[in-house]
UniProtKB/TrEMBL annotation:
Protein name (record): Aerotolerance regulator N-terminal domain-containing protein
Taxonomic path: Bacteria, Pseudomonadati, Bacteroidota, Chitinophagia, Chitinophagales
Species this chain originates from: Chitinophaga flava
Statement: the UniProt record of this protein carries the keyword Transmembrane: yes
InterPro entries xref list: Aerotolerance_reg_N, Double_TM_dom
Taxonomy, superkingdom: Bacteria
Length: 433
C-alpha cells in the first residue's frame, strides 16, 4: 500500500510541467518591445494517456513486490483430484500417474508446499526428510475431504516416523520399493580384550535388519577404554556398578579397564569414564571424556518405576538439571541426565542393581546404538497405508484454497506497459520539437 502512493510522483511531474510559450506571427516591429519573460505553466493534466501509463508502471511494480497470488477454492466440482508423487518413485508408477493426469488430475510435489506442476519432468529431486505421516497430516488443510487423492511414495520404514494420523480423506496410497533395497555396512569396530578387532556388520533388506559379529586379528594396537569409579562411603554402590561394568565387558568383549579408588589424589590424570559416587564436589583437576556423579540433596521417598520397565523406585534426590534426560521415572521426572544421577545404586533406593536390565542400560549408555536412516532398508507393512473410513465434520470451518502465482503475468504486463510508455513519451517529445 505504501508503494502505491508512488503514483503521486508522475501526477506532480505532470502538474508542474512547463510548456514552451506559443510563437506568434507579428507584422509590426513595435510589438517587439521588451517585456518580461513568462513561461506557460498549466495546472491542467496534459498527455493523460502518458500519465496513466506511468501510474500503471508504479502500481504493477508495487504489485510485483507484494508477490501476488490468485486464490481459487478447491472443490470436487472444479478439480478432478490430486496426484502427489516423488521423483524417485515416478518410474514405478509412470503409467498410472500419466493416466490420472490425462483424466484431469493435478500433479503436486510431495512436500509441505504441494506445488502444482504441469509435467512429471518438473518433479524436484528427493531431498526432503519429512515423515510421510506429517505429510499426510497436512493434506486436510489443503484439500476438501471428498477430493480424490493419489499418493505415490516409497515404502521405506525410515520415512514413516511418528504417529499415524487419522484423516478424513478420499486417499489412495501406493508405495514402491526403491532400487537400492539392500545395504551392507560396518556398524561398530573396536578392540576386544584379546587384542582382536571386532566388527559389527549390518545387513538391511525390506524384510528387516540383521547384525553379525566378525573378529579379525589386529597387531600392534592395545587401545583400551578406561573407567574409574570413585567413592568415599558408598562402597556397596561401587561394587554393584563394577559388577555391571564387568558384565558389559564380558558381553562386548571390549578391552575395558575398570578401577575403583577411594582417595581423591589417586584419580588418574585422564580417563574415558569417571563415575563419581560421592556427595562431595568434583575436584578441579578431574579429567574424563564423560563424568557421571551423584546429585546432592536430601533423599525423598518415592513410589514409582523406572520408565520403560517394571523396576520399582523407593527414593530419589531433588532434580536440578533437566537437560539431556537419559533415564526417567514413571512420572516423567529425570533419573539420569548427561552428568547427574538422581538415585543411588543401592537396593534401598531401587531394584535396579538386582535387575538384569542394569548392565543393558549401562551398555546403551556407554555404547549407544546410533540409528542411521541411510542404511535402513526395511519396508512398512502395506496394511498400515490403508486409511479407515472416517466421516468428515458436518461443518467445514474454511474451504481449502489453491494459490496460483501471478508473478509471470505481472512481469509481462510490466514489460508491455513500459514499452508503451517509452513509445508515447518518444512520440510526444518528437511532436514538441
Amino acid at each position: 500500500m505504501i508503494l502505491t502512493a508512488g503514483i503521486a510522483v508522475p501526477v506532480l511531474i505532470h502538474l508542474w510541467h512547463r510548456r514552451p510559450g506559443r510563437v506568434l506571427k507579428i507584422s509590426s516591429v513595435q510589438l517587439l518591445a521588451a517585456s518580461s519573460v513568462r513561461h506557460a505553466r498549466s495546472w491542467r493534466l496534459s498527455e493523460w494517456w502518458l500519465l496513466l501509463l506511468r501510474c500503471l508502471l508504479i502500481l504493477l511494480l508495487a504489485l510485483l513486490l507484494a508477490c501476488p497470488v490468485w486464490r481459487k477454492p478447491i472443490t470436487a466440482r472444479n478439480t478432478k483430484g490430486w496426484v502427489i508423487t516423488e521423483k524417485a518413485v515416478y518410474p514405478a508408477f509412470s503409467q498410472r500417474i500419466d493416466s490420472l493426469m490425462g483424466a484431469g488430475f493435478q500433479l503436486h510435489t510431495a512436500d509441505t508446499s504441494f506445488t502444482l506442476l504441469q509435467h512429471p519432468s518438473a518433479l524436484p529431486p528427493d531431498t526432503s526428510a519429512l515423515s510421510y505421516w506429517q505429510l499426510l497430516q497436512m493434506l486436510p488443510q489443503k484439500i476438501p475431504a471428498d477430493l480424490p487423492v493419489y499418493l505415490f511414495t516409497s515404502n521405506r520404514l525410515a520415512r514413516f516416523e511418528g504417529i499415524k494420523p487419522d484423516v478424513a480423506l478420499a486417499l489412495h496410497w501406493y508405495a514402491a520399493t526403491p532400487a537400492d533395497s539392500v545395504d551392507n555396512w560396518n556398524g561398530y569396530t573396536y578392540l576386544t580384550n584379546n587384542d582382536s578387532l571386532r566388527i559389527l556388520k549390518g545387513h538391511s533388506t525390506p524384510a528387516g535388519t540383521t547384525w553379525q559379529i566378525q573378529d579379525t586379528l589386529q597387531q600392534g594396537d592395545t587401545t583400551a577404554l578406561y573407567c574409574t569409579i570413585y567413592t568415599d562411603k558408598y562402597l556397596a554402590d561401587a561394587r554393584y556398578l563394577e559388577a555391571a561394568l564387568q558384565a558389559v565387558q564380558q558381553y562386548t568383549r571390549r578391552k575395558i579397564k575398570i578401577q575403583t579408588i577411594r582417595q581423591r589424589d589417586a584419580l588418574p590424570a585422564k580417563q574415558d569414564w569417571l563415575w563419581w559416587l560421592s556427595d562431595s564436589s568434583l575436584p578441579a583437576n578431574a579429567r574424563a571424556a564423560r563424568i557421571i556423579r551423584y546429585a546432592s540433596g536430601t533423599a525423598q521417598p518415592l513410589t514409582a518405576w523406572i520408565a520403560g520397565s517394571a523396576i520399582p523406585l523407593y527414593k530419589r534426590l531433588p532434580v536440578k538439571d533437566t537437560a539431556a534426560v537419559l533415564w526417567k521415572d514413571s512420572y516423567g521426572a529425570p533419573l539420569l541426565t548427561q552428568q547427574t544421577l538422581y538415585i543411588h545404586l543401592d537396593p534401598s533406593w531401587s531394584e535396579l542393581v538386582w535387575s538384569s536390565e542394569f548392565p543393558q542400560r549401562l551398555l546403551d549408555l556407554m555404547f549407544p546404538a546410533v540409528p542411521d536412516k541411510k542404511h535402513d532398508r526395511r519396508m512398512i507393512d502395506p496394511q498400515q497405508l490403508q486409511q479407515p473410513s472416517i466421516q468428515p465434520a458436518a461443518k467445514v470451518a474454511s474451504i481449502p484454497q489453491q494459490e496460483t502465482s501471478l508473478e509471470n503475468i505481472n512481469w509481462i504486463l510490466l514489460f508491455l506497459i513500459f514499452c508503451m510508455e517509452r513509445y508515447f513519451s518518444f512520440k510526444s517529445n518528437k511532436k514538441s520539437v
